[in-house]
Amino acid sequence: MANEEEWKDSIHRNYSYFIENIADPHDVAQYLFGQTNPPIIMHEHLGQIKAERTPSKQVEKMLNILLIRGPMVPQCLFDAFVETHNEECAKKLAPYLLAQEKHALKKTTSEWPPLHEEHFDMKKVPVTYLKPNDPCCFLQYNNTDEVYSMRRKRRGLVYLINNEKFDDLPRRYGTEFDRDDLAKLFTDLYFEVIVYDNLTAEEIRKNTESISKCDKIKDCDCFIFIILTHGDEKGVCGIDGESVPVSTLTEMFEPNNCPELNEKPKVFLIQACRGDKKQKVCPSGGPGENGSQGDGSGDHVDGMNASDGGWELGISATQTVHSKSDFLVAYSTPEGSLSWRKMDAGSWFMQAIVWVFKSESHVKDLVEMLGKVNDIVSKGKAKSGWGHYVTVSKYESSLRKKLFFFPGIYGDKKVHTDCI
Where does the pLDDT of residue 335 fall: very low under 50, low under 70, confident under 90, or very high at 90 and above? Predict the structure, then answer.
């Protein structure tokens, strides 16, 4: 809850604007009397407000009364503005309320990955859904100049590749937790999820190309590609040990190859090693958390620097922005480094994504959430003698706008029936 100075400041900052722009102070005051529980405006206050001679004086009187009524005032006044069609006034309070919501978010565990019992409890936490007039939705849902449109009832398509059993590389124990948790997360965010297990490099290429040309792509507001696998110096590995450069996969969804996704966000989430480097920390307090396993073959990898042959695509008739626009590629670890996974829980990176997206997608956009994911992954510790290994996830983005998932809302701010 906000302290007294914070909530009062949200009124003081907009005091003059409210005096000049509230359309009918009687409507607002009546809402605050009859529609809030307990009433923010009391019956005697209504008489005091009505007694003022001019509308501006009536607003001033109402605001002065509200400034002594407690920290629920900004939320109640916001609701009153929305219901009495004072939308521009509501927009003045929405940033303060959104900041309060973010401040009140569920806190992450003190260590990552969390202890088994705590992790089990976190997995039971559902996605937090929006209401049509929640501050984030109110501010951003129709802000198409700065925010990607996410209005379809089925948001888009998630294509998830999960490689666990390899011909020669170590089995990726624990990856089934990532697969199942990610599938549920994005289903709950109203994406259609397509899962493939144990693909060779050629199958990865062919299946991904097929997805890029399928009819379902036409009805997407957003496309998400996820791969859980080993990595080597060339890219992400199939179960046969051969690799596919990340650039090969992203190019399949560029406008020349997939015009249906032109100007739409395309997100790639990659859980794979990108080399064999382990960054070790030797604290004075002894060894760190155990039970994590390097997620890869130990080979060097730098998928983002793989050569594309130096050629340049021509511009198609359906392409309106640069072919590399509207992509975000997030990696579980920096170039040249190992990625980490708990055999009984899943990978540090994907489990952080599941937790953050479930608990914060109703108030944060994708880039802001991935910053939180980076912070969580950086707290991970894999035991090594008297020290421990650490890593950090990273992302590279050419998104031109903010990407909000707006969980539970679609169309003209309709609410999914199972979110009511």
Answer: confident
CA-CA distance, 144 to 353, in Å (whole number)?
25
Distance, in Å, from the CA atom of 338 to the CA atom of 294, rounded to the nearest integer, reads 6
Distance CA 156, CA 370 (A): 20
Provide the Cα torsion 21, 23, 24, 27; round to 10°.
-100
Task: Please tell me which residue, 43 or 107, carries the higher pLDDT value.
Answer: 43
Listed range (4-8, 107-111, 155-159, 309-313) with the worst mean pLDDT: 309-313
C-alpha count within 13 angstroms, C-beta hemisphere, residue 341 = 28
pLDDT tens digit sequence for 49-68: 999 999 999 999 999 999 99
| Mutual angle of helices 4-12 and 87-103, in 10-degree steps | 160
Cβ-contact 407, 358 below 8 angstroms: no
pTM for the model stands at: 0.86
Strand (E) or helix (H) holding 415: strand 414-415
User: Other CB atoms closer than 10 Å to residue 180's CB: what's the count?
Assistant: 15
Please give the share of the chain, as a percent, with pLDDT higher than 90: 71
Grouping H, G, I as helix, E, B as strand and the rest as coil, residue 103 is helix
First to last CA, the chain: 25
Torsions phi, psi for 51 (to 5 deg) = -70, -20
Give the helix ranges, DSSP H, for 124-270: 135-140, 175-188, 201-212, 246-251
Whether 315 has a pLDDT exceeding 50, the answer reads: no
Contact 241, 299 (CB under 8 A): no
315: left (phi over 0), alpha (psi -120 to 50) or beta: beta
12: which residues sit within 8 A by CB, 6+ positions away? 67
The C-alpha atoms of residue 412 and residue 420 are separated, in whole angstroms, by 16
Helix (H, G, I), strand (E, B) or coil at 53: coil
pLDDT confidence of residue 232: 77
